[in-house]
């Protein structure tokens, strides 16, 4: 088990070594980079907005229904909703969701390229296939992930606000006060900082599993599943480490 | 010319190539033939550098690729074109985009010049009016021709083809064979074709190497194949009644 894990980590490190090298043609790299930002990032905006809106709404409802202590002021609902969204949901939970959407997309795309010999074709042309295929994906994901996190923060809080407006279970003015109370700007930087690591984990691990596929379409499916599982576990592990370092 | 000397290759302790030495000549269609699982694809991938043999030498016009530095291998690969069994066209690129790809990666030419060259290559493989289609929108035979056009875009000195006729009907196979033979002679390339298509063997085999269970069994031309006394080769090439009749006819005709 340990031997196998070390072997996989060694292969991953070797692949990343090949990935982080100077692109053969910068012009091509930037073209691919922009394409990946669009494919992996911009195309994820709708799902990020939908999920964040609903989760923000659910958090607000749960806070209102469960914080019933007379010792706590009513605006605690707003404070708790905001903190949950800023500190964990918009970075960590969003990363877990994206590891499913983006991670499986990357792993299956690269895996299909592997089994149809497109990667071999690049190698035969003398092109560093890891650099050509993977680097734009990692760069695109790391660049755009903070944007998705900001979208998620905004729409998550909006979701909580919408509940107040639509159902009236909490007063709008109290929620607004709570959302603004004791605001710590550092929490946003903390979430954005974490998201960079998560973006790297999602894109690099999915690329690794896709790139190292051996066999046919069945193995591409397995690689896609492995990519999602492993990157999800790594996201949670890194979340613990970063949280302890930055907040502990 | 490509020369290989004493190539050995194994996977996890199981040897698949045993001490293979051979020569592949410039301006000729060099065929590697053998049954499925005989080691043909491994041999071609070893020669081209997609797999690394345990021992031996691979000489590209005297340059040993086994001892080359990464930069030298990269330079060598610009002289190599390869046609893969499944064509290996880039799904995300159009037909024209696939052929332009090596040009834009390796030349400083303007897009217009690259496009002109790509159109010339597509014209050379008799493909017209499909430039803007994606690989999934054209037939298997057309995909092979696009792959050939892409392989010759940079004017390679060496062309490798891994089972170019697999999945094609006999008539289209003939077209691909003729095309490969024509461009080999026209551009004086060293072409190595890995096949088990007997039409190809008898049609374009100018230098044939027969591989059996990882060993080189026989070397000769398509004319010599009819009179060879290698039982394994005869069993393989003239396996069907039709080809047995063809052999009798050729022997009777003294060909």
* End-to-end CA span of chain A: 32 Å
Number of helices of chain A: 9
The number of distinct β-strands of chain A equals: 0
| Radius of gyration based on Cα positions of chain A | 21 Å
What this model shows, in words?
The complex is a heterodimer of chains A (248) and B (255). With 248 residues, chain A is an all-alpha fold. Chain A has nine helices and no strands. Chain A has one domain. In chain A, 84% of the residues lie in helices and 0% in strands. Chain A is elongated. In chain B, helix 6 links the parallel strand 7 and strand 8. The longest helix of chain B has 18 residues. Chain B is globular and about 55 Å long. Chain B starts with a strand and ends with a helix. At the A-B interface, helix 5 of A face helix 2, strand 6 and helix 3 of B.
In short:
Chain A is an all-alpha fold. Chain A has helices at 2-19, 26-41, 45-66, 76-115, 118-124, 129-167, 172-180, 186-211, 217-247.
Keywords:
heterodimer, A: 248 residues, mainly alpha, 9 helices, 0% strand, B: 255 residues, alpha/beta, six-stranded mixed sheet, four-stranded antiparallel sheet
Q: How is this fold's topology laid out?
A:
The complex is a heterodimer of chains A (248) and B (255).
Chain A: H1 2-19, H2 26-41, H3 45-66, H4 76-115, H5 118-124, H6 129-167, H7 172-180, H8 186-211, H9 217-247
Helix pairs in contact in A: 1-6, 2-6, 3-4, 3-6, 4-6, 4-7, 4-8, 4-9, 6-7, 6-8, 8-9
Chain B: E1 2-11, E2 14-24, E3 29-33, H1 40-48, E4 55-60, E5 63-64, H2 70-77, E6 80-83, H3 95-106, H4 111-124, H5 140-152, E7 158-162, H6 170-187, E8 190-195, H7 198-204, E9 207-212, E10 215-220, H8 222-225, H9 231-237, H10 241-252
Parallel strand pairs in B: 3-8, 3-9, 6-7, 7-8
Antiparallel strand pairs in B: 1-2, 1-4, 4-5, 9-10
């Amino acid at each position: 088990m340990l031997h196998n894990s070390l072997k996989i980590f060694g292969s991953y490190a070797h692949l990343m070594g090949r990935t982080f090298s100077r692109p053969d043609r910068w012009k091509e790299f930037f073209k691919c980079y922009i394409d990946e930002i669009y494919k992996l990032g911009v195309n994820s905006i709708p799902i990020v907005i939908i999920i964040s809106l609903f989760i923000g709404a659910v958090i607000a409802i749960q806070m209102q229904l469960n914080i019933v202590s007379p010792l706590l002021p009513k605006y605690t609902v707003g404070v708790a909703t905001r903190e949950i969204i800023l500190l964990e949901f918009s970075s960590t939970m969003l990363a877990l969701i994206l590891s499913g959407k983006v991670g499986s997309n990357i792993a299956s795309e690269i895996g299909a390229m592997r089994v149809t010999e497109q990667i071999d074709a690049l190698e035969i042309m003398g092109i560093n296939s890891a650099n050509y295929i993977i680097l734009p994906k990692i760069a695109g994901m790391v660049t755009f992930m903070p944007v998705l996190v900001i979208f998620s923060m905004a729409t998550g809080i909006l979701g909580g606000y919408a509940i107040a407006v639509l159902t009236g279970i909490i007063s709008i003015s109290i929620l607004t006060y709570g959302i603004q109370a004791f605001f710590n700007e550092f929490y946003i930087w903390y979430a954005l900082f974490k998201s960079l690591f998560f973006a790297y984990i999602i894109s690099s691990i999915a690329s690794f599993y896709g790139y190292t596929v051996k066999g046919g379409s069945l193995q591409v499916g397995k690689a896609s599943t492995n990519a999602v599982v492993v990157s999800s576990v790594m996201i949670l592990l890194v979340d613990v480490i970063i949280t302890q370092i930055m907040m502990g | 010319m490509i020369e290989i000397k004493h190539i050995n290759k194994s996977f996890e302790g199981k040897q698949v190539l045993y001490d293979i030495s051979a020569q592949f000549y410039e301006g000729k269609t060099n065929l590697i033939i053998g049954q499925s699982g005989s080691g043909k694809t491994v041999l071609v991938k070893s020669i081209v550098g997609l797999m690394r043999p345990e021992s031996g030498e691979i000489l590209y016009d005297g340059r040993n690729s086994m001892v080359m530095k990464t930069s030298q291998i990269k330079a060598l690969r610009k002289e190599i074109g390869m046609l893969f069994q499944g064509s290996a066209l880039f799904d995300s690129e159009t037909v024209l985009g696939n052929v332009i790809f090596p040009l834009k990666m390796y030349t400083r030419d303007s897009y217009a010049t690259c496009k002109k060259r790509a159109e010339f290559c597509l014209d050379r493989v008799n493909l017209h009016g499909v430039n803007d289609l994606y690989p999934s929108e054209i037939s298997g035979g057309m995909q092979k021709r696009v792959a050939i056009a892409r392989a010759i875009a940079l004017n390679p000195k060496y062309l490798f083809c891994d089972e170019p006729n697999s999945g094609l009907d006999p008539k289209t196979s003939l077209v691909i064979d003729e095309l490969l033979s024509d461009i080999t002679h026209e551009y004086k390339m060293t072409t190595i074709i890995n096949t088990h298509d007997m039409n190809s063997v008898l049609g374009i085999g100018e230098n044939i190497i027969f591989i059996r269970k990882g060993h080189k069994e026989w070397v000769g031309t398509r004319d010599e194949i009819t009179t060879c006394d290698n039982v394994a080769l005869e069993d393989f090439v003239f396996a069907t009644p039709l080809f047995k009749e063809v052999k009798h006819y050729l022997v009777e005709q003294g060909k």
